[in-house]
Amino acid sequence: MQDLSTSLLVGDMGINYFRQIFKFILLLKALYLIKDWSM
């Protein structure tokens, strides 16, 4: 039972980590587009 809960916790952490990376990439893309557009 404990193995299941730990694997779920790790999976949740992985999802949050991936989501933060995805947000970061989107932010960089947006900044790059804005910079490109303003020039």
Automatic annotation (TrEMBL):
It comes from Streptococcus mitis. Keywords: Membrane, Transmembrane, Transmembrane helix. This is Accessory secretory protein Asp2. The chain crosses the membrane at residues 17-34.
